[in-house]
Structure formats: structure tokens, C-alpha cells
Amino acid sequence: MEVKIKKRKAKVTQADCVACGSCVKVCPKGAIRVYKGLYARVDEDLCIGCGRCAAECPAAIIEMEEVAS
After folding, report:
1. SS (H, E, C) 1-69
2. Does domain 6-68 have CATH number 3.30.70.20?
């Protein structure tokens, strides 16, 4: 029987992102970057699922999603 461990990853709703950079500043692994001054994007390989970005986002558009590993 295979046991799947659930991990959390940040997901940005890009259409609603105001590109303020608050999430970028608090990410301990540098997993979030603002692209073209328009929206933030998460590098899932770097994201550790700590949730700091979601807590800091003034627009509340970052969600923590569970993903199977």
C-alpha cells in the first residue's frame, strides 16, 4: 500500500494580483516573483508551503492548496 503525503503549495490568482510584492518579501525560499510588473507567480519546486505569502497578501488572493507528493 502506497502512502501519499500531502503537502501545501501556494497558488496565486493571477487575474486578481496587484503585483505589490508583499509576498515576495516574506517568502523564505524566494519561491515567488512578480512578472512583468503585473502578477506574482509561484515556483512550486521552491515553495515549502509555509503560508507566509498567503498571510501577508493584502488582496487575499494567495491560497494554500494541498498537493500529493
Report:
1. CCCCCEEEEEEECHHHCCCCCHHHHHCCCCCEEEECCCEEEECCCCCCCCCHHHHHCCCCCEEEEEEEC
2. yes
